[in-house]
Amino acid sequence: MSSIQNSIDVILKQGMLPLYFNADESKSIAILKTLYNAGIRAVEYTSRGSEALSNFKKMIEVRNAEMPEMLLGIGTIKNLAQAETYYLTGADFFISPGFVPEIASFLVAKEVLYAPGCMTPTEIIAAENAGVKFIKLFPGNILGSDFMSAIKDVFPNLIFMPTGGVDTTKQSIETWFNAGVSAVGMGSKLISKEVMEYGAYETIEKETKRVLELIETIRK
């Protein structure tokens, strides 16, 4: 399992974090391989269905055998029991839709990255006081980049990443980076249900490469 700082470094280097879930194990693995081929080295797999745990276990196996550089994180973790289960499975980092103090205590002690979803300064302060270093601004489409601009100076020691509503366009990504985020979460705007349904892996790879290049250009 990766250390907190190493996980942060990998996510920040690529400047974006792809996230997805698919009930089909073979499609979940195929998408993981596609993202790896596109240059991605950290992925969030969301725990949103009954198949998530078994799929994740298989993805860890494939990752270990074929993609040793890939960090595989788990998202939509909402309670300590889930965190403990996925920790034993080998998840490299954990992401929640909200801040859960028990999860923070458990993972910070294990030196594993925990990125809780926060949408108020109160939640961000609570997370920071619990030892969290990486904040997921969620939902990003509701908060907007102006929120990030307004709070940036209050939290100089935290790293922020919006998830939800971030488009793959230059304007959308650039607006967020200019506001002060260090990475952007990319879900259905990058890996849509339609693309997954039809197994359009070339489309995913091409679009992922384009977004990575776009972020590199924006950050120069």
From TrEMBL:
CDD domains attached to this UniProt entry: KDPG_aldolase
Highest taxon of source: Bacteria
Pathway: Carbohydrate acid metabolism
Pfam family, one: Aldolase
Keywords from the named record: Carbohydrate metabolism, Lyase
Gene3D superfamilies (UniProt xref): Aldolase class I
Similarity-based family: Belongs to the KHG/KDPG aldolase family.
Subunit structure: Homotrimer.
Annotated protein name in UniProt: 2-dehydro-3-deoxyphosphogluconate aldolase / (4S)-4-hydroxy-2-oxoglutarate aldolase
Species for this entry: Flavobacterium anhuiense
Upper lineage: Bacteria, Pseudomonadati, Bacteroidota, Flavobacteriia, Flavobacteriales
